[in-house]
Amino acid sequence: MNIGKLLGGICALALSAGTVFAADAPKTVEEVANPGGALPGNPQIALVKVADGFKDPINVTNAGDGSGRIFVVERVGRIKIVNKDGSVNADPFLDLTAINPLGNDVQTGFVEQGLYSVAFHPDFKTNGYFFVHYASLPFNGDGMIVRFTVDPASPDVMTAERTNETAKVLMRIEQPWYNHNGGQIEFGPDGMLYIGSGDGGWEGDPYEAGQDLSTLLAKMLRIDVNVEDDSIPYKIPKDNPFADASSERLMVLFGITEEQFSKIKTRSRPEIWSYGLRNPYEFAFDQKTGDLFIADVGQNHWEEIVFEKAGDGGQNYGWPRMEASFCHPMTGDPAGKPCSVVGTLPAAQYPHTQPFPGAPDDNTGGCSVQGFGVANYGGMEGVYLAGDWCSGRVFGLGHDGTKWQLQEMMQTGLQFTAGGYDEDGMVLAVNASNFYLADQGPDSNPPGTLWRVVPANEVPQGAEIAEAVKK
Question: What is the pTM of this model?
Answer without folding.
Answer: 0.94
